[in-house]
Amino acid sequence: YFNRCAELASFQLGMRDFKKEGGEEEIQELTPQQGVDKMMPFTMKYLEEIYDNGFENFYLDEKTSAKIVTLSSE
Question: What is the reported pTM?
Fold first, then answer.
C-alpha cells in the first residue's frame, strides 16, 4: 500500500511540476517515451523524499484546490 501511494503521489507531483515548467502544450507534443524521459527527474525527486521520510514532510496548500486520490483493487 505504501509503495502504491508513493508512486501515485510522486507521479502526480512530478506532473504538476513538469506542467509548471514546460506548460500543458509541451506535454501534448511529446511521444510517450519522451514524456517518461522528461518527467522522470521531476517524479524521482518526490519518490526519493517519500521513501526517505514517508509523507511527514508533505502538506496541502490551502490556496489551491486538491484532488482526492482513492486506491482500490477494482
Answer: 0.70
